[in-house]
Structures
1.
Amino acid sequence: MKVLVIPPHYDDEVMLCGGSISKWVRQKHEVTVRFWEMCNADESPRQEEAQKILNYCSSVSNIPLVVEDLVDDICKYQPKIIITSHPNDFHAKHAEIGKAVQQAVYYVSRKISWDKIEGYDTPMLLFGTTADIPLGFKPQVYSEFEMIDIQHKMLALQKYDWFSQAPRSKYRDMVHDVVWLFRQAEDFGDVAGCKLAEFFEIGNPEPIMKI
C-alpha cells in the first residue's frame, strides 16, 4: 500500500498521523511525506532527525503550492491513501492546504489526469487533526497502532523540540505534553474499540449526480 502525507508544516506529519506512519512502515508499506514552500526551512535539520525515527520517505519543493502540482504528485506517487490537514482547521495554513489537496483529489477523480496514469483508482483522502479538533471534524476512519508506534511518535516530536514549546492552543493548557499526547491516542482508541488509535475524516468529494 502507498500512503502520501501532505502536511502544512514540518512536525505536522507527526501530529497528523505519526503513530500510523510508524505502523505502516513496520508493515512494509510505502509512506511518502511531501513538504511544500510553506514549511519553515529552519526546521529542516529537525525534520531529518524525525524522519530517521519514523523511517518514511520525503520530498521537499521550494515553490508555492498549487493544485496542478498536487495533481501531478498524486499521479506520480499513485497513493491508495492521502492524509492532510482539515480544511476547517483553526490554523489558516492548515485549512489552506486541506482545501488544496481536496481540490486536487477532485480533479483526479474527474479523470483530468488520466492521460498520465491509466488504471489508477481515486485515492482515499483523509483529514487528520493536529493540536485542536477542527470544527465539524467527523471521526470516520481510525488507524489502530501499538505502544511502539506512539513511542516513535513521541520521539519524532521530541526531535522537533515540540515538547519544549509554549502551548499554542486556546482550548487546552498543556498541548505540548507527553501525557496529553498519549491520552489523545487512548481516547481515540476507546472510541474505536482498541487500545491506541488516530482518527481521520474522509475528505473525498461527493460524486456529481445528474437529477
2.
Amino acid sequence: MDKNIKIERTLTAILAVLVIFFCVFLMETNAFTKLRIVTINNQSSSNERYAREIENSVYDITVNHNETLSQMITSAKYTGKNDFVSELITPANIPLYVSGGKGEEKIQISLIKLDKAMNNSDIPSFLGNKGYRPATVEELLAFSAKYPDMQKKYFITNISPVTIAGYKFIIALTGDSDYRALDVFTAHGVWENRTVIAGVKIVEMKGI
C-alpha cells in the first residue's frame, strides 16, 4: 500500500512538472508570436519611413565642370580612416560628361527608390516616367561632396554603365556608420528594390 502511494505521489509530481512546463511553453510561444508581429510591424513601418524620406527629398547641388575627375574625388573628401575609392575609378577609365560646355551647373538631385527589383536596362525608362534621368559621374560626386552622410544610410548609384577593361560597371556611393566609399559594381543582373538611384532635373546652367 505504501509503495502504491509513493508511485501515485511520484506520478502526480511528474504531471505537475509537465503542466508547469506546458504553461511556460504556451507563455513563451505567445510572447514570441507577439514579438514577431511587433518586429514585422516595425519593419513595415521602417520601410514606409524609408520610402517617404527617399521620395520626398530634393537636394540642390552645383557641379563644377572645370574640375577633373581627380579634383572632384578630392572635393568629395574620402579621407576618413576607413574610407576608400576603388582603384578602377581613374580618369582613364571614367569619362566625364559635360552638359553645355565648361562651367558650373546647378541641378537638383532626387533619390529615387526602386519600387520593385529591376534589370539595369529597365531603370532609365523607370526614371524617365518619373521625369528624371540618371545622374552623371560628376553629378554623383558633387552630391557626395555636399551630402557626405547620405551614402552611409543608402546604397546610391547613377546606374549608368561605364566600360572598364571590356566589362560594364556602375559607380555607387556606399558606406556605413564608420566609412564612406566610392566603388564600382558589375552592371548586369537584377537590382533589389532597396536600391536608390540618383535622378536629376536641371534647373539652371551658367558658364564661367
3.
Amino acid sequence: MYSNGYIERFHQEYDRNVWAKIILANLTAVQTHSTRFFDEYRQSQHHSALQGNSPAELHLCGAFPKLPLDFQLPDKLPLTAGRVHFLRLVNDARQISILNANWNVPKAQPAQGIWATLEFLPRGAKLSVFDYAPDARKRTCLAVYPFPLHEPVVPLQAQFSRLFASQHRNRRQGNASTTSNAQVRATMS
C-alpha cells in the first residue's frame, strides 16, 4: 500500500534527478533516462519511512498491510472520508480540469504546475488549490471551492483507519522525510 508521502517523494526525486538536470528532446530520451532513474530509485535507501530499506527490498519481502481474508467489496462502494490529490497544469484561461470540470485559479499563471486537494468529509467536500505540495516550507492557497456531491460521505472504516493513523503518527514523530519539496511539476491528465 502506498501513501501520498511515498508518491510525493518519488515525484520529488524524479523532478530533481531527471526534469531539472536533463534536456529531454523526445520520447526516446524520456524513456531512456526514466528507465535509468527507476532502476536507481528502486535500489535507493533515501526515504526514512522505509526504515533503511529500498523500495525493491520492501516489494520482495511483501511488507505491506493485507486485508482480512474474509474481506469482500460491497456491490457499490461508498464515497469515503479522505483526501484525493491532483497535480495539474494551469491552462491559458487560468483554469485546471479536475474530474471533468474546469476550476478557475485566477492567482495562478498559465503553464504553472499546481497541487489540488479534494477533501471529502461527512458534511461535504471542498477543493483547495495550492502552488506547492504540502511538504513545501512555504505554500500559498490559490483557490478554495465547495465541491458538489450527489451522495453522502461515510467515515473511513476502522479497519482501514488504523493503517492511516499509524502512518500519520510516524510522520508527527519525525519518521518521514524532512526534505523540502521543490515546486510541483504538474502534468495534464
